[in-house]
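Standup notes
- DV: blocked on the single-chain target, sequence here:
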Amino acid sequence: MATRVLDLTAAWVKVTDGTNTVTVQVKSGLVRLVDSPTAPAVDAQGHVVDDWVTITPPTVGWIKSESAASTAAVVS
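- DV (later): unblocked, structure below
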């Protein structure tokens, strides 16, 4: 997977399909992380991440901004 920069909002973004390892670096703000085979509910709770996290198979990772403010994250 190529490195990409995401400008996260309140919408969940799928960062891995459960078949590969992905590293997420939070550049600003806080990110919520959920393991779910389908898109989580808008109000789904999750792990709050403020730095680096590595997501490994079989986790299907989804992230979003923890607050209403946009959050920058680098995914590779």
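- Follow-up: The first strand starts at residue 4 and ends at 8.
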